[in-house]
Amino acid sequence: FLVGDTRHIIREATKKSCFICCKMGATITCCETGCDRTFHLPCAPDGQCVTQYFGAYRSFCWEHCPKQLLRPRLSQDNTCSICLDTVEDNISYKIMGCPACQGARFHRHCIQRLALHAGVGFRCPCCLSQEPFMTEMLIMGIRLSKRPPSWQSDQEVGPSDQRHGRCDAAMCLCPGGREHTKANGPWQLQLCSSCAAEGTHRLCSSLGNSTCSWECSTC
């Protein structure tokens, strides 16, 4: 049974088109006043959109998403501090940097994977700063994990009592809240098949009952 407000949200979402893939059912709207761009959470990386996974879980389109303001690097190093592949010196949606040391550069997908694996030990891979590094990464849409670093355990996914147990969709439609789950149906929690560090209710990400696997926007 869906409460009235949830039914209204779902009904309105069926009328909205994702500006990235142009399909209907977009449940996320840019938080910028006056902007009516809507999109699906899985489409967000392709559209260079940002969702902040804290507080009010605000989302922004490519035009209104937060931007990093970093000084140009003095060194000529043009490699990602994590994967060591080439990066552009200019900061962009895909290329990020550390606000503390100003020198570290990394791909967005690299720093996101590091954040999920590092857990509570997440910090700049170069200067080892946690603040303001962690705060800036949150603002820029990097999803953090509260678990111990994955390298401290033999298993990438910990015991069942540490299993991720909440819906991370930008707009959770479940009347019972993000941590409410069911064994099956629309409120069944589906974990990312790659990192297992993010989850979604089937309905919140428009997953059909026949969908066996799901990947978060980061992976």
List its traits.
8 strands, Herpes Virus-1, globular, 3 helices, little secondary structure, 219 residues, two-stranded antiparallel ribbon, 9% strand, single chain, two-stranded antiparallel sheet
SSE order and pairing:
Layout lengths: L3 H10 L14 E2 L8 E2 L10 E2 L7 E2 L34 E3 L7 E3 H11 L14 H7 L49 E3 L7 E3 L18
Antiparallel strand pairs: 1-2, 3-4, 5-6, 7-8
Describe this structure in words.
Helix content is 13%, strand content 9%. It has 219 residues and is mostly loops. Among the domains are: 3-60, Zinc/RING finger domain, C3HC4 (zinc finger) (Herpes Virus-1, 2-Layer Sandwich), CATH 3.30.40.10; 67-152, Herpes Virus-1 (2-Layer Sandwich), CATH 3.30.40. A hairpin with an 8-residue loop joins strand 1 (28-29) and strand 2 (38-39).
